[in-house]
């Protein structure tokens, strides 16, 4: 009786199709690209205009602000510019109602991004953001609530990226949310007021909004320079570098 012929297992390539697990960065990036692409297609097609959006929102009646908050939250998580969303809130609902609507939307989007990073896609955020995200996370880790409040008051910060970076830290979601709502309220009001007065920029709220943005920009520059180059915090020293913004 002949011994059975023992053959080596086939190589992985010959075992049939394998189910590859997508890189988390690809999943997160693909979601963002799909959402932004859909918006761009609608905008370029000409089917998106202020009147059409107003009609669409009006069709929801009293639930219109809630619908806007949901849509704005999703778009913001996909890196859609926050100032445009806040301006749209003012254009649709006016300054009085648009301001709290935009603040709620911005706060919820920050919470969502932080939560996604913390519990779902932290590995993707680290790989996509790289050293910049790590620096932001370190800044938040050292100062907690005050660091989030500080960042919200500064101009020119990539806020959505900061939201994802905050999810990599041990800062509580409650502290992060509270600091976001407080620190982001002044700038959100300014953008809402500009959107609400679109076409009539001589209105008092427009003047206040512009003055507020200018004052916050100047104040932010002064604070950043003091933080990085102030007494005992020279940029050439390790302490100075760690005290500065990411």
From TrEMBL:
The keyword Magnesium does not apply. The chain crosses the membrane at residues 26-48, 60-81, 101-121, 142-161, 173-194, 206-226. InterPro entries: TMEM64, VTT_dom. One of its GO terms (cellular component) is plasma membrane. Residues 80-195 form the VTT domain. Keywords: Cell membrane, Membrane, Transmembrane, Transmembrane helix. It is a multi-pass membrane protein. It is found in: Cell membrane. Residues 1-21 are annotated as: Disordered. Its main location: membrane. It comes from the Bacteria. Belongs to the TVP38/TMEM64 family. This is TVP38/TMEM64 family membrane protein. It comes from Capillimicrobium parvum.
């Amino acid at each position: 009786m002949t011994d059975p012929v023992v053959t080596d297992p086939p190589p992985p390539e010959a075992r049939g199709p394998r189910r590859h697990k997508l890189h988390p960065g690809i999943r997160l990036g693909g979601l963002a690209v799909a959402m932004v692409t859909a918006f761009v297609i609608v905008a370029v097609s000409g089917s998106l205009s202020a009147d059409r959006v107003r009609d669409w929102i009006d069709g929801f009646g009293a639930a219109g602000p809630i619908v806007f908050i949901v849509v704005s939250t999703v778009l913001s998580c996909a890196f859609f510019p926050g100032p445009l969303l806040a301006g749209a809130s003012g254009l649709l609902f006016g300054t009085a109602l648009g301001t709290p609507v935009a603040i709620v939307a911005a706060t919820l989007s920050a919470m969502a991004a932080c939560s996604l990073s913390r519990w779902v896609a932290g590995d993707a955020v680290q790989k996509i953001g790289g050293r910049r995200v790590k620096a932001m996370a370190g800044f938040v880790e050292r100062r907690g609530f005050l660091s989030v409040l500080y960042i919200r008051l500064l101009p020119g910060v990539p806020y959505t990226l900061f939201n994802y970076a905050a999810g990599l830290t041990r800062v509580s979601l409650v502290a992060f949310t509270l600091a976001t709502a407080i620190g982001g309220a002044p700038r959100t009001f300014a953008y809402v007021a500009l959107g609400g007065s679109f076409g009539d920029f001589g209105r008092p709220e427009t003047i206040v909004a512009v003055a507020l943005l200018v004052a916050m920009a100047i104040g932010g520059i002064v604070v950043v320079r003091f933080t990085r180059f102030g007494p005992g915090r020279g940029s050439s020293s390790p302490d100075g570098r760690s005290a500065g913004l990411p």
